[in-house]
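Can anyone check this?
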Amino acid sequence: MTLEARFRQALADHQAGRLAAAEAGYRSLITDAPDLAVAHHNLVALLRAQHRLEALTPAYEALLALEPTPELHLSLAVNLLRFGRYAEAWPHYEQRPSKAGSQPLGTVREWLGEDLDGRSLVVWDEQGFGDQIQMARYIPLLQARGARVEYACREPLRPLMEGLCPTLPRYAENRGRWDFWVSSMSLPARFGTTLETLPPPMPVKLGKTRSKDRGAGVGIVTQGGGRNPNDANRSLPPEAAARLMALPGAVSLQPEDTGAADFARTAEIIARLERVITVDTAVAHLAASLGKPTDVLVTALWPPWQWMLERRDSPWYPAVRLHRQARPGDWSTVIDEVVSGGRG
């Protein structure tokens, strides 16, 4: 059979749901014609549909050799990060589309690891609010290298981040204002972060409330903010949300219920609680940074790379326990576990 005929047969198997035959066909084509990009693309699509994350890594790598796009670099990086392969992941993660799309205007140089003693540097907010709270742990490390650090971030973050360093609006001109800039999401790569060298969570400065106070009540977050592409998967259906809100002492931490205009105010509310139960949102990162016992409910499909795979603990946050779906879309066993008080 010609290569075209073999591809058509593999594609027909794929479309008919004969996935094992389709996979064998694509792999045979790739062996005989390594530059046949369409076979690589279809193999990646097949593996993604089956959520075969381990097999996706070499498939991404092979396709990336043919088409080194930012999107493929990101897909490979995220998959490596889920498996804790940080040293391999960071160079690919540096090619992510969101970095190129959100870097500051002006002539300031990107910080790539140069000496910072006596130099000024602006950290640039990139991606979600939770990502910023997760990466804020690196600000003290920058300051320890002698840098004068400012954080350009969105308004809801500014009062919280002011406890670490001066802030300014993210949408600002920076021509000549600092010696360097760096994306918040590039900081793990700049510090060569591995699972063994993760710095502790960001220190959160509060008013009179102390984060280590035991507190009372359970903070609940059942819905994401809606902008995350995985929001439909990570948010709870009404019946599951109702079960959590029926827990003794349950308090909603949804912004529309607390009235909190920023994350510093939310931190004050969390500090008065005993425990937080939340889907994968910024509140998970905030509560865990405060050291509150934090139960994070994790989807089976495409879990965020920060929560890795299968683990019940988090190397990023000692206070976190992860509760994972056994099947996509099924929150029942997760809610059973949390309601019964289990922490994994």
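Reply from J.R.: I decoded it. The chain has a mean pLDDT of 94.
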